[in-house]
Amino acid sequence: MDIDVQKVAMLARIRLTDAEANELGPQLSNILGYVDQLQEVDTEGVVETAHPHDAAMPLRADVVTNTNRREALQKPAPKIESGLYVVPKVIE
Amino acid sequence: MPFSTLSDMKSRLDTGEISAREITQNVLERIDTHNGTLNAFVHIDPAQVLAQADASDAFRTKHDARPLEGLPIAVKDIFCTQDGPTTCCSNILKGFHAPYDAHVITQLKKAGAVLLGKTNMDEFAMGSSTETSAYGPCRNPWNTDCIPGGSSGGSASAVAAGLVPAALGTDTGGSIRQPAAVCGITGLKPTYGRVSRRGIIAFASSLDQAGPMTRTVRDTAMITAVISGHDSGDATSVADAPVVDWLGACNPADMKGMKIGKPREYFVDGMDADVREAVETALKQCENMGAEIVDISLPHTEYAVATYYVIAPSEASANLARYDGVRFGHRCKNPEDLLDMYTRSRDEGFGAEVKRRILTGAFALSSGYYDAYYKKAQQVRTLIRQDFLDAFKQVDVIATPTSPVPAFRIGEKTDDPLTMYLSDIFTIALNLAGLPGLSQPCGFAGGLPVGLQWIAPAWREDILLSAASAYEAATDWHARTPADFDGQGDAA
Prior knowledge:
The complex is a heterodimer of chains A (92) and B (492). With 92 residues, chain A is mainly α.
């Protein structure tokens, strides 16, 4: 299968050099070619696995449990100002 | 001392023969001597580790000892810890300090364990050899030219070399069991939902589970008893999970009446002949101990690897979207705009295998391909689960080789991702089905350890522990230790 590696890389928000793309292209084709054997399995009417034990998502009581740890949680950020995450300008 | 089990250390601590400080000093010295060769540890802070040991010794003078009081345990670099860095062995998390402890780390601390530091792993747990680590490859103490397995290779190498008696790993497609097998130690992947995933850096959330890697079956039980249980901080941690008598299940018995399934799809052409012979011999021994070996079939086994390599990368591509250079992790220098910041930060931060998996997942989930890949894989996953449910109507437990081959040489498979993926052919199906599995040593192939894998129905870790304990009591493979690290070698 031919894959437009640069297009997929843009979906995943990863910059790839042409050299990287040239290496990854055949590798991805190889992996997806292997995975294609799934097409031979008869899955007519088979329900997809949503959870390994078919468990439903549990609900918790609607009470406040989190404490305010803003400072600690923001500490690992590359750039913070006045408690806000700073990123390059988004809108011109 | 170097190859003491957790249980031995516990009794010596309990009788007052040795202190936590003395044990910890011994462990730190051994790490200092051998880590240069093995590269098993990536972060360690001796002063902080000794402070924990002193605190444990002080606790013991005033209170009853807690379940893991003063016992040294290493953890994979995937567990968030407030002390020291947590990097998942990726450049994108270089210098990251977690603002909270993973639930299992909290449980270990509450139980009195001394946490030794972080062990090497494949970047983001994506690999079967611990070669994709940003800190360089880790080595197998049985042959330092060989891989220790992966992704929890640092934990396996450290335990196998007698640096520490126990370590935590995580297992998404075999990452506890396969390194345990190729390093000659015991590793347990609990039932999905048994152990909280909170604070464990996510790879594939429907598959990831944490578990212990130790020298004996009983030691895996000691640790699992502490780390398992419901945690409201993980929505997939099961609240009403059937409870196991962890230590009680380890009292060795004979195997009278135990029905062991031997799936024909796990004994195939192409696997290493010595591995096959070691596992066949182990099963004969089980038969001699009273077990009945039943030939069974798990017909969808051949599709497990393909199913996994759609589902795991898809979940990974979603989970790893969080590394965007905004809230934590690496940010590229002088970004032109937001898009440039995302794409360059991620290019610079992720290694080749992680990129490969993210792109595989992004492709499988992309418009026009979702039904053919992701939906199809989740359907085949249902068939794989059904195979096990059907098999467990006939047998109590299933036994297989853990890995089709012993440890391979460093660099041997790095150029061929697909061949590397096939290393996990015997471990992956359990993760897809959410089942518990245990690997224990059962022999050698060319001087390298071979693992025997036990598989039980969901929530029946007690069956794994009792089968493995009975086998362990009748054999001494678990007691063999690598000659180059002050051990006795592979001969009896």
